[in-house]
Structures are given as C-alpha cells and as structure tokens.
Design brief:
By secondary structure, the chain is an alpha+beta fold. Helices cover 34% and strands 31% of the residues. The strands form three sheets. Strands 3, 7, 8, 9, 12, 13 and 14 form a seven-stranded mixed sheet that branches. Strands 4, 5, 6, 10 and 11 form a five-stranded antiparallel sheet that branches. It has a two-stranded antiparallel ribbon with strand order 1-2. A hairpin with a 6-residue loop joins strand 1 and strand 2.
Length: 290
C-alpha cells in the first residue's frame, strides 16, 4: 500500500514521495525539530584538564626552583641571566616566525592543483611533473660526466688533533632549465627557485676527506610548483607563486613534499615554544628572591 502524509496547511492526503501538496502547493517537508542541545562536556574532561594544568605548573615550579638554586650555586649575576632570557626568547620567536612562514608556504603549495602541462593557462598556480632538460647543464662534481641543473656540495676533512670534521668546501650552483611533459615544455628561471634535491653523491675522496653532493640531474623526473606565465613567443615560464613563496623544484611527489613541509613547520613550532618556555622559566628563576 502507498503511504500518505497529510498536508500541514490544508490537511489534504498526499503521497509520501511528493515534495509539495497537490491541493495548496505547501511544502510537505518534515517539521523542523528543535535543535539538539549542545553535548555536555563530561566531568572527566574538566578533571583531566585541571590535572594537566596542575602537573605543568608543578613541573614549572620545580624547574624554576632548580634553575634558581643553580644560579646561586654557580654565582651567576642577574645580568647573565637576563642576557640568557633575551637570547632564548629571541631564538624562540625566530623559530616561531620561521614556522609561520613555512605554514604560509605550505598553504600556498597545498592549494595549487596538479595539472597536465597542456591544460595550464597564464596566471595558473599549479604543480607540474615532468623531466628535467637544459641546454647549458652543469658538470656534477665528483660524479664523472653526469650533468645537472643544480648541485650543493659539501666537502669535509677529518682533523685528528681536533677530533672532528672541518668543512673545506660548501658550494651551490644552478642554471635555468625546462620541464618537459610529453611534447609540452615550460621554462623555469633558476634565480628564484627553492630546490629540494636528493643526495646524489656520498663518498670518500681520500683518507680523511669525504664529500656529499645534493643534485637535480638532467633527464630525471621532477615536480615544480609556481605560477604559469607566457612571454611574447608564447613560451610558458614558471614564476614564483607569491612574494613570499618562490618556485619549488623537488624530486618528491607533490603530496610527499607538502607533507614534509608540514612536518618541518610543526618541528619549528614546537622548538620555538620550548625555547620560549625555557626563557620564561629562566626569568622566573632570575627575579625570584625567596
């Protein structure tokens, strides 16, 4: 049997599948129920919050008391302590500022879609993946005849008397390149590119001398992100996304690079908060007299 529902206005019977009354045209939707009351926060949550705050306060009190006792035992003057507070606070704020910049860069890169190069238009912000090409490639250091468009080389020598390694070479070089995807290409100026290159060379040059080279070699797949422009010759050029976000060139997949960038920002944020908290504890230990 067909189910019927009565119209709230004229009480005419209508099929339950109808949206409006056949007699008066009134909507047959269900009456709006009163909004459910917001869920009551369980007392366990508030008890847990109070307990966590109490533990944090106790740890802060113990740490500040220990720092004060150490300051007195070491005979450190207030000037040194205040200098340490200012230094830690400045480093913490620098780390937090770096985390905010990375968060903004992460947001811009996450918003850019992955597009086939043939479907991009001027002013499009997009991720493009293709193969590295260059008419004037660089010679990759310590890798024979291998060509590249970017490298960062670090050479270290072992010092026996110092018991460590001393950096003797730390160079970076890059050239303009193109990214080819099937029959389409896009030109990438190297002057405004943030490279994320894999470790290409890790070897000992001689006894006590080792070299590491990070490089983007030619003919390898690469992911680039930026804003597509076109010059007078209709050659597409990839420029920076915004004033704060340069062109990104990475050997990773776009999703992997975005996830790695988010982790770096999270680590910088935690580091900044830790330094700021330590500065606050040092300040308490410095001004405490009792």
């Amino acid at each position: 049997m067909l189910e019927h529902v009565a119209c709230r206005r004229c009480h005419a019977p209508n099929l339950k599948t109808e949206a409006i009354c056949f007699a008066c045209g009134a909507p047959l939707g269900r009456r709006r129920r009163a909004r459910d009351a917001p869920p009551v926060t369980p007392w366990v949550f508030w008890f847990g919050m109070a307990f966590a705050l109490a533990v944090v306060g106790l740890l802060a009190a113990v740490a500040s008391h220990w720092l004060r006792a150490y300051r007195i035992a070491a005979g450190l003057s207030d000037a040194y302590m205040f200098a340490a507070v200012i230094l830690l606070a400045a480093l913490g704020q620098a780390a937090l500022s770096r985390a905010r910049r990375r968060d903004g860069q992460w947001w811009e890169l996450k918003r850019a879609p992955e597009l086939p190069l043939a479907q991009t238009r001027a002013q499009d912000a997009a991720w493009i993946r293709g193969f590295v090409k260059s008419d004037t490639p660089l010679e990759l250091p310590y890798a024979g005849d291998q060509k590249c468009v970017y490298y960062h080389v670090v050479v270290k020598e072992h010092e026996e008397d110092q018991g460590g390694w001393r950096t003797t070479q730390n160079d970076t070089n890059a050239v303009d390149f193109t990214v080819q995807q099937e029959s389409d290409t896009i030109y990438v100026p190297s002057g405004d590119v943030q490279f994320d290159a894999p470790l290409f060379v890790d070897t000992y040059l001689a006894e006590g001398v080792k070299a590491k080279v990070w490089a983007v070699a030619v003919e390898v797949p690469i992911s680039v992100c930026g804003r597509v422009e076109a010059d007078d010759g209709e050659q597409r050029v990839l420029l920076r996304l915004s004033e704060a976000v340069p062109v990104v060139a990475t050997w990773r997949l776009p999703s992997d690079y975005i996830a790695e960038l988010a982790q770096r920002g999270c680590r910088a944020q935690w580091f900044g908060w830790a330094l700021s908290a330590l500065a606050a504890l040092l300040l308490i230990a410095t001004v405490a007299r009792g």
